[in-house]
Design goal:
It contains 26 helices and 18 strands. With 658 residues, the protein is of the alpha/beta class. The chain has a 5-stranded mixed sheet with strand order 2-1-3-4-5, covered by helices on one side. The chain is 41% helix and 14% strand.
Length: 658
């Protein structure tokens, strides 16, 4: 870059930084309290919009003034709506599950009267002598935030808040460097693609830079389709500028002039915030033509996908953008040589691009100090299922599964035991308790039979049927198959049909060998990652939970009592209270009737096994029982007939034996 270009670059970015500092100073002037409300999708779903309105109304009613500051996701989805209140004279306090009623109480008690309301807070966000800090708890202090460092702190709709926090400084630094130097920094950092494959990012970028072509492209793959996964969506909703900055650095390094964020249309908030962020960056001169006088032209647009899971595979994604049906194609050539419209194309995940600015800012050595030697940096997981504190977690690579599930996420609720964890999306493997010491990194998880994937993690307790889990995930991948490969299209259909028979009590002994053999054939004969990994839940559950398959097939019994066809509900007459109609009102099909002595019974021919009767039965009685196999449930005749009769004495003995 010429000296004139350097001067224009420095002057232009300095002006942006000065404006950001001026705005921050204006916000912090005076002694007004500040109320930070998380308004990402998880917060909105929990009622954060109504909570914000309640704060606004309560402030007006009590004649108080405070600045309400919308922010992104803090990651603690179990505690939404989350609110941080800064009241002069007190430490900043994080409140959880802030309903509109709690919002009004916080305004009255804390902002007006100075009472922090200890029963509603998680802790203070800064050191003090009055209130315990949130950093004293493992859910906070065992995270290492790199990608999500600014999430929950800045307003994602204000580019100047991002700049005030050091945003776009890494991009400006990169503009002063030669592309080869940027590539060296990324290679030395050891960053691997966070979309699941774990390919070294620096090598991919270098190959794209070396490829011939004058229309190179940079694509951010935000097509997040795994059930229970929401890492990419949350990052885009909380800090879209960090992703755009990473893409811009990549464009300068490889010589690309255009970028695309491929995001699914089912993420309307992410699409809106991303579009606004692109517009703000263009207006500030950080995207577009001749960026800050550097001579770099880089334009980004949004492409909304239609929700096909297979479009998360990079060649299928390219087909989709080109207007064709999203189907993977053979490689080589790889996209870095011949991608979108035949031009060299870089495709990286949201988390990969969001990792670039911190690496440029702190240096590759700093990044390598986080994580492991082979897998530096952090991993961002959405931990869902049977855990006390589900949500978004960013941890260093190499942390053990036990630490993540039990220490950080609080373990299994309701005093139940851990059974399995499914890692890597619907195609990930299911690992039992024996693997809780497994480090979270690409090689360790693959060796255990699972995979890193893009970061989805489902925790399951003792009441989970592993056969039904395999059926559930295979049903998803089978429906999402594009149909191009015979093994994937037809093979997964036969796997699913076999699993459905087993969960209905119609399994055969030879099904176990059939599931194993066909799964291996599908893995070997499929073209893309969807087919190659679709059988993983079956393979791992057969390996680690084979006894459950055998119980379903040989005993027609579901050990977890989850499979409806293999379970039944009945009412223990010794515990049933006369005149209690709780179960009657909850039954959707009127399968519960009165016995001659005014107790209740279940008509097994009408019961749809929804379990509502067990939920509604008062705990002091706990009269509703669940059994597997279903023939263990005693059958009581309706007064008008319709069920086989059983002697009263036999019924009483049967109920007592249960």
């Amino acid at each position: 870059m010429s000296p004139e270009g350097q001067a224009e670059l420095n002057q232009g970015f300095s002006a942006l930084q000065e404006e950001a500092a001026r705005r921050r100073e204006a916000r912090s002037k005076g002694s007004l309290p500040r109320i930070h409300i998380g308004l990402a999708t998880c917060g909105i779903a929990a009622g954060a919009v109504e909570t914000r309105k309640a704060f606004e109304e309560a402030l007006v009613e009590r004649g108080l003034q405070a600045a309400i500051h919308p922010v992104g996701c803090l990651g603690h989805c179990y505690a939404e709506p989350l609110v941080v209140v800064e009241n002069p004279g007190f430490p900043s306090i994080l409140y959880y599950n802030v309903t509109p009623g709690k919002a009004r109480m916080i305004v009255k008690s804390f902002l007006e009267e100075g009472d922090p309301l200890f029963e509603y807070l998680l802790g203070a966000t800064q050191e003090n002598d009055l209130i315990p800090q949130v950093m004293d708890f493992p859910r906070f202090n065992q995270e290492t935030r790199v990608v999500t460092e600014k999430s929950g702190r800045i307003d994602p709709e204000d580019i100047y808040e991002y700049i005030a926090e050091g945003g776009y400084a890494a991009f400006v630094k990169a503009l002063r460097l030669e592309p080869a130097e940027i590539l060296r920094i990324v290679r030395d950092s050891g960053l691997r693609g966070r979309g699941g494959a774990g390919f070294p990012t620096g090598i991919k970028w270098t190959r794209a830079m070396e490829a011939e072509g004058d229309g190179k492209m940079v694509i951010c793959n935000a097509d997040e389709g795994d059930p229970g996964a929401y890492m990419d969506r949350t990052i885009l909703e909380s800090n879209p500028h960090q992703v755009l900055e990473g893409m811009a650095v990549c464009a300068h390094a490889v010589g690309a002039g255009k970028g695309i964020v491929y995001v699914r249309a089912e993420y309307p908030l992410a699409v809106r915030l991303l579009g606004k962020a692109i517009g703000q960056a263009e207006e500030a001169g950080l995207l577009g033509t001749n960026i800050l006088g550097s001579g770099l032209d880089f334009h980004i647009r949004i492409f909304q996908g239609s929700g096909a899971f297979v479009c998360g595979e990079e060649t299928a994604l390219i087909q989709s953008i080109e207007g064709q049906r999203g189907m993977p194609r053979h490689r080589p050539p790889y996209p870095v040589r011949k991608g979108l419209w035949g031009q060299p194309t870089i495709i990286n995940n949201v988390k990969t691009f969001a990792s670039i600015p911190p690496i440029l800012h702190h240096g590759p050595s700093w990044y390598r100090e986080i994580g492991t030697e082979k897998c530096p940096g952090t991993a961002v997981f959405s931990v869902v299922g049977d855990v006390v504190h589900p949500g978004l977690v960013e941890i260093p690579m190499g942390v053990q599964l036990r630490t993540l599930i039990f220490d950080i996420c609080g373990g299994i609720p309701n005093k139940k035991s851990f059974k399995a964890v499914q890692i890597g999306g619907p195609s990930g493997g299911c690992l039992p308790a024996d693997f809780l010491e497994t480090p979270v990194d690409f090689e360790s998880l693959t060796g255990a039979g699972a995979m890193m994937g893009s970061g989805g993690m489902v925790v399951m307790d003792e009441d989970t049927c592993m056969v039904d889990v395999a059926r559930y995930f295979l049903d998803f991948t089978q429906k999402e198959s594009c149909g191009k490969c015979t093994f994937c299209r037809i093979g997964t259909f036969h796997l699913l049909r076999t699993l459905e028979r087993i969960t209905k009590g119609e399994g055969r002994e030879e099904d176990l060998r059939f599931l194993q053999d066909l799964s291996l054939q599908i893995k070997g004969g499929s073209l893309c990652g969807l087919g190659k990994t679709a059988p993983n839940p079956i393979i791992t559950s057969l390996r680690y939970f084979r006894e459950e398959y055998e119980a379903h097939i040989r005993e027609k019994r579901c050990p977890a009592m989850t499979c409806r066809a293999l379970t039944a509900y009945y009412i223990d007459l010794e515990k049933c209270a006369r005149g209690c109609d709780a179960c009657v009102g909850s039954c959707p099909v009127e399968a519960i009737f009165n016995t001659p002595d005014r107790k209740k019974a279940v008509d097994q021919t009408q019961c749809v096994k929804c379990g509502e009767c067990m939920v509604s039965c008062p705990k002091e009685y706990s009269a509703v029982k669940k059994v597997s196999p279903p023939h263990l449930a005693p059958v009581i005749p309706r007064p008008d007939g319709g069920a086989r009769h059983k002697g009263k004495e036999d019924l009483s003995r049967s109920a007592q034996s249960r």
